[in-house]
Amino acid sequence: MSKQKKSDFKRQAALLLIAALLAGILPIPGSSPAQAAADYGVSSPRVDSSGVGTITWDCIWFGNYWQEDTNGDGRADKNDEKTPIKWRVLSVDGGDAFLVADKNLDCQKYNDIFIDVNWETCGIRNWLNGDGKETNKEGKGYSGDSFLNNAFTASERQAIKTTSVVNSGNPDHGTYGGRNTEDQVYLLSIEELRNPAYGFTSIIGSVNARKAVNTAYTAEGGEVGSNGMNSAGSADHWWLRSPGSLSNRASYVTNTGYVLTSGIDVNDDRIAVRPALHLDLSFTSNWSYAGTVTSDGKESTSTAKPGTPKPGQTPMPPLTTKPPFPTPQRTEEPEKTPVPKVTYDLKLMTSGNGAVTLKKSDTKVTAEGSAAIDMTVEGGEDILLTFQPAEGSGSYTFTIDGEEKKAEGNTYWISGIQRNHTIVVTFAESPQPTLEPTPTPAITPPPVPTLEPPKTTEPSQPTEAPVPSVAPAPTETPEPEPSLKPVSSQTPVSSPAPTPEASLAPSPDKNLSAITDGLGVSPDTAVKIQMAAKELNVSMDTILVTEQNIKSQKTDGDIRGAYFARIQARASQITENNIKLTWNRVKGADGYEVYGNHCNTRKWIYEYKLKKTISNGNQRSYIDRKCKKGTYYKYMVRAYKIVDEKKVTIAVSKTIHAITNGGRNGNAKSVKVNKNKITIKAGKTWRIKAREIKQSKPLRHHRKVSYESSRPQTATVSKKGVIKAKKKGKCTIFAYAQSGVYKKIQVTVK
What we know:
The protein is mainly beta. It has ten helices and 41 strands.
């Protein structure tokens, strides 16, 4: 480049730079004041420059909802007046403010029933928006009783933008997130909770910035009347829209600020709702500045009226015209084009010993062995491939149009079919052990006979405790019989190939993430915990029970993960001032913890307290010597196993209710049933008739006689005691009273 050209280039660059600087200072002709975020007096989150890392969010008053006990009746419910909702500003882009509720505003199930759903089809989306489209799977609408209608007036609803919500899959588990949606109110996603631009962090662990506390209305159970919420002003769990590790689970943020990507059942009623929305700031008469909140819990509150700017800001002149709604939220949002009404062929060829299931709406096609399938789909449809290797087959590979793909677990989504595809799936056979040729006796000296064959594993000792009802039945391995002399078909070889040992670490499992997240342990420790759980037949619900879970239990009901078939704890001896608890020895337990307190009353809620830690896995009793005469008490016994210095729950009892002597009521001394042993054919039913035998004084029930099966694969039992035989085998049905006394019914299914 010549000197003259270089000089011209520099002159042009300087002019461009000056123009750019002037553009940042002077208003652009024809631009709206809504394009300048500072004019509205709110801004995006900012980090403390001192290096402490404290996040500060601006806040906005917008809308009204039931939150506090305003009528003084001692209960926050819909009989109270609505109070202004405080929102945190996650980002400001011109006249658009991305908001999330400062507190947990309500309590609602992600979906009413336990089925596979995603954000597009779940019930909570309908409840939040209440558009009457009834897009959830149950077909349940909330047109007249939605959050949107209850929290905002007609003019306020105009100020809420309709957002194109991107519903990505679960980034940790690969679960499908559903199609994108158009919503006014929605929930945050896993990705948004890890976005530093919103004041959060990419750190996986517990973070204060993600915590949210309950309003008094939410603490009372909110919309669904939940009994499992933390008190007003206490941090609690809140839903995300992202799916969990399975399609019948949804992710949520724990009360410690941890993003639990493995999630919880969609019909759980103990998770709060923290709505999010996009607000058009030009509707200045509908909102006002509400001060700031910080990640370390500090807040400065403003009670300014709607339309009042942030202190130190110049009031905005009113807009002559309001922008039309809905308004797209992102300039880069692709234009919506109608889905082409064309069809495409999906050709699937498989080889090896396995199967692939294609799912499109209700269409299912399975290919086994060597096969080829042509499937016609409409343009824009999503296809789910589910890989099902047959027993004995090994790994599989697959290609789409010649390009090798990698599945998430055993599934793979093809989103938005827009052309023909050819899929080839190859299942590899598992390598079979090569048989060594039998050497001749002349070459191989005979081994010294042994009276006992070598034991690879120590046979498990029988235990009184049956396996939990949700755990799979263990395979019974017959005990090897000692061989006193060699058998001709078992001629030993000189250098036998060693038997391949099982890998110490199991194959990747979606439950590992739940253990890591729920118990706060390292991945290595999570692997060891999972192996212990499989060895002892402990369910994931039980593994995830912690001391904190028990102590935060607000109700007198049973904690999730409690199985009577696993640990039978009962009040065995009762006096005016003492209650003795006894339980069966739990296999693998290194110790026990006993929790207890008064039973709840209409006026008071008593949280569980740790009564005793027993570090001897063989001890099976505890006496509470600090009881009051004629008073009801509740107890829970937790059996734990120590893994890498971490106490891991391997059994937790059903709640025991017992009353001390000297009052008007008494306890059951036993349970009587119509039969102790039955034989029944598969598919048939039989009803248990059970009743409690009182000691002397009348019983006051916290819970009537309950039932549980030790092996639901063999026979199930309903809440009313109806046994249904499933398949051939034996199991035990427990009929137990609230004090823990019980009766066994031995069931044989033919």
